[in-house]
Amino acid sequence: MKSFKALVLRNSPTFSAKVEQIFTEDLPSAGEVIVKVDWSGINYKDALAVTNRGKIVRGGFPFVPGIDLAGTVVSSTEKTFSVGDRVLSTGWGLGESNWGGYAQYQKLPAAHLVRIPERLTSKNAMIIGTAGLTAMLAVMEIENGPIKKTGSFLVTGATGGVGSFAVLALADLGYHVVASTGKASSEKYLRELGASAIVDRSELSLGAKVALDSAKWAGCIDSVGASTLEAVISQTSRHGTIAACGLAGGSDLKTTVFPFILRGVRLIGIDSNTCPQETRLLAWNRLSELTSKRDLNQISTEIALEDVPTAAEELLEGKITGRIVVRVS
Ligand SMILES: NC(=O)c1ccc[n+]([C@@H]2O[C@H](COP(=O)([O-])OP(=O)(O)OC[C@H]3O[C@@H](n4cnc5c(N)ncnc54)[C@H](OP(=O)(O)O)[C@@H]3O)[C@@H](O)[C@H]2O)c1
Question: How many CB atoms lie within 10 A of CB 140?
């Protein structure tokens, strides 16, 4: 096969992230399926990997990052997939321990692939990506809780990838959504997604004032963590569910047991990376349904593979609203 483009991370003599020409024979991953990658995205983890700011790469160097990919099967030794099938992959170590989506061809195990639902385009699948999948898994945990659609449901980091899809999904399902953001200029964006009210990020970022504060939230999807999550735990009402998704504000968590034992607050962890296949398929079908009436281009910016390092810096600087989708092929 002729050569194709990939964003390659190298750590010698110093760290670099550059688009290079590689061959399918260079792809080190084990897998039965070769996918022509059309689209990927930039998630928080990708931004850390590409800028070398976090210990994301566990597969050694050189390395091709990208925790999401969508494309078309070009060869498969596994009967479940045929040439021409539209597929996506997120998690299972993609872009962390296994070479990822920032390459025009990638080799993957069939078990790590999801068939893209019929009415979802490959581009929209990647606008959704890990961020949207995580938000949907969080919504499903809120649905599993005892509190139905009464009261206000908070989304933190609301203009981010996870946050945007959390606002959109909860609002579409009929929840009253309050969006917490550090971007005052994004009120219109958040209201168009379905938020009924906006709170400034600073109202939560100082942490819990007392162990049991006035109860404000019937539930929360949190992608910020640290003092923000501490405040949310103290302000969640009886039997409310908090889905802890991320650490955009930090990973420490200081709390007390009182909200859990006196209010029955449920703190549920979300891990999209190793989410079981059955739940994944359910979530992708729901995301396909949810987004079928939306123009997802309005919540995303399309970039080329060559632009990934610059966009990754911007994402970590908090300058991005919504999702970045990467045109790979
Ligand atoms: N558990 C999982 O499976 C899973 C999957 C995907 C992502 N994540 C995690 O979820 C988090 C968000 O990911 P993402 O892809 O949505 O990232 P993102 O697009 O960069 O969004 C993060 C958002 O958090 C807010 N934020 C940023 N820095 C902050 C700070 N210092 N303090 C408070 N808020 C801050 C910003 O929203 P505002 O400006 O609107 O406040 C930002 O847009 C990350 O920690 C990521 O690792 C986890």
Answer: 17
